[in-house]
Amino acid sequence: MAWFKRKEKGIQTPTGEKKDVPKGLWYKSPTGKIIDTEELAKNLWVSPEDDFHVRIGSKEYFEILFDNNEFKELDAKMTSKDPLNFVDTKKYSDRLKDVMSKTKLNDAVRTAVGKSKGKDLVVCCMDFAFIGGSMGAVVGEKIARGIDYSIKHKTPFVMISKSGGARMMEAAYSLMQLAKTSAKLAQLAEAKIPYISLCTDPTTGGTTASYAMLGDINISEPGALIGFAGPRVVRDTTGKDLPEGFQTAEFVLEHGFLDFITPRKELKDKINLYLDLILNQEIR
């Protein structure tokens, strides 16, 4: 068989030296569009052909919002405990160790302060990679302390939500964070410090029921899932078919629960524009 005679066909590479294409070199969006991962990163993780916004974490959002990616992280070493000695398929304490090792994160939210378009800004950003962005005691405490920092330094506060809801392994400790963060946001409002809430994909459960929907301005990225219970739970509970696009950012905007939908490329400019309008400063 002539095709088997590699040298005669000009094929010089020994079979043992052939290498597979590295994983993660290409990204395929839900609509089937394929893009080089490096190009996707340059485009702020937005697929250029279909405008699909890929989920990103605090690292990427800080790069987008802070000037020259320069910021100071607050309470970086704060970690969760296991007050209930909770066990499901594994011990909660073991789960925490595993996810911390895998993600290099200490919990599902990071808080940072830095300059955005030359103005001081506090940003709390959730990471879905850490147990589904679930809200536990540390998440609530870090958000509360971020708000305290904003009040003390009279600095606008931005919350970027990306969460599956309350962390079941902390039970009531987790649910207490709804009231805790809401009370802190009331103090922020009393101090007349602006609060902008950005909902990203997904923003659900107790997060939606508390700080995610309490902004002076509530905004979202295109196509984000925003709701309390998931579509399947709502469908099973009501026994009715859901409207097309139910719980997408566009649906939520149409029904009055969002102020704007902001593409990721415009995020930094739009947040600063909103802050200028709230503070009645000169728009740049």
Please tell me about this protein's structure:
The protein is of the alpha/beta class and 284 residues long. The protein has two domains: 16-54, no CATH class; 56-279, 2-enoyl-CoA Hydratase, Chain A, domain 1. It is built from nine helices and nine strands. A seven-stranded mixed beta sheet has the order 3-4-5-6-7-8-9, with helices on both faces. Strand 1 (26-28) and strand 2 (34-36) form a beta hairpin. Helix 4 (137-153) runs parallel beside helix 5 (171-190). It is globular, with a radius of gyration of 22 Å.
Please write out the topology.
Elements: E1 26-28, E2 34-36, H1 37-42, H2 58-65, E3 71-74, H3 92-103, E4 109-116, E5 119-126, H4 137-153, E6 157-163, H5 171-190, E7 195-203, H6 205-208, E8 217-220, H7 231-238, H8 249-254, E9 260-261, H9 267-279
Short recap of the structure:
Helix content is 33%, strand content 17%. It is α/β, with parallel strands linked by helices. Strands 3-4-5-6-7-8-9 form a 7-stranded mixed sheet, sandwiched between helices. The chain has a two-stranded antiparallel sheet with strand order 1-2.
